[in-house]
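User: I've been trying to design a sequence by hand for this structure and keep getting stuck. Would you show me what you'd pick, starting by listing the structure so we're on the same page?

Assistant: Good idea, let's start from the same input. This is the structure you sent:
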């Protein structure tokens, strides 16, 4: 009589769900659909003849049996990863330097890093997460190999990742959009969106005052959600503390275009791999669960 065997792919799904504390979060990290990962978890539970996760409104948590399996799953997946590195030969100390807006660091970055290191084991990753305003200069200066950003003008060499409307946003708990002068939170002077917003407000004849400036989305989002100002954000940066301001006399802002730009000196193999993973991550973000 043979015992059923654990499949390493099922264990990877188990680890991803456990780490994310949700099936949807685990699916995003694996670039798979939620239904596919849910089926894999069910299959693993059938093989184990045990319930590994407790489902609740906020997501999932490990059962005692799941806690027991966790270190074994980590060990199996890590052993396979080290085996791949060993078979491919000694590391050539390759590295890639990329920039990413900080608003994606908690959502997409973990899955991007996991996908890239699985495809390119042993490669050193140097990240810059923050305001993307400086990314074009860093690319031109050879400080970055590839960067995700929203330029004012999209060049022929840019790879378009996503187009998204820029929206006026206000606090979900305060109503300040009818105040005059209108209190506005904007990015600092280095951001081209700042000048576009100010120009549109002036052309629309809106009396305004800038009450907060910041270089990060997190700072602008905090100012908006606290109710001290309105501001401009892409819809993907909204939270449950922020609402869209649609019934106002504020001007339409148009679209932002998120692109991947690489430097001329970027290592082609690594940049191609990372670009493909970025595109896959954003496709998964837009795919219904």
């Amino acid at each position: 009589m043979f015992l059923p065997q654990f499949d390493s792919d099922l264990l990877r799904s188990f680890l991803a769900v456990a780490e994310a504390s949700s099936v949807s979060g685990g699916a995003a990290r694996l670039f798979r659909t939620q239904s596919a990962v849910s089926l894999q978890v069910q299959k693993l539970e059938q093989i184990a003849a045990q319930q590994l996760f407790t489902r609740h409104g906020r997501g999932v948590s490990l059962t005692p049996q799941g806690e027991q399996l966790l270190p074994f799953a980590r060990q199996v997946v890590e052993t396979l990863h080290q085996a791949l590195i060993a078979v491919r030969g000694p590391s050539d100390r390759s590295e890639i330097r990329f920039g990413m807006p900080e608003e994606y660091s908690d959502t997409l970055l973990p899955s991007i890093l996991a996908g890239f290191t699985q495809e390119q084991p042993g490669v050193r990753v140097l990240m810059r997460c923050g305001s993307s305003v400086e990314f074009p200069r860093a690319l031109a200066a050879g400080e970055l190999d590839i960067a995700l950003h929203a330029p004012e003008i999209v060049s022929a060499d840019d790879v378009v990742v996503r187009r998204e409307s820029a929206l006026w946003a206000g606090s979900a708990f305060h109503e300040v959009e009818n105040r005059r002068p209108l209190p506005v939170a904007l990015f600092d002077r280095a951001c081209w969106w700042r000048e576009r917003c100010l120009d549109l407000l002036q052309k629309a004849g809106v009396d305004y005052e800038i009450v907060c400036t910041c270089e990060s989305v997190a700072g602008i989002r905090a100012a908006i959600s606290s109710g001290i100002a309105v501001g401009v954000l892409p819809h993907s940066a909204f939270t449950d503390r922020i609402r869209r301001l649609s019934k106002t006399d504020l001007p339409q802002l148009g679209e932002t275009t998120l692109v991947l730009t690489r430097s001329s000196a970027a290592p082609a193999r690594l940049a191609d791999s990372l670009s493909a993973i970025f595109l896959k991550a954003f496709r998964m973000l837009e795919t219904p669960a």
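That's my pick for every position. To get oriented when you compare it with your attempt: The mean pLDDT is 88. Residues 145 and 265 are 7 Å apart (CA to CA).
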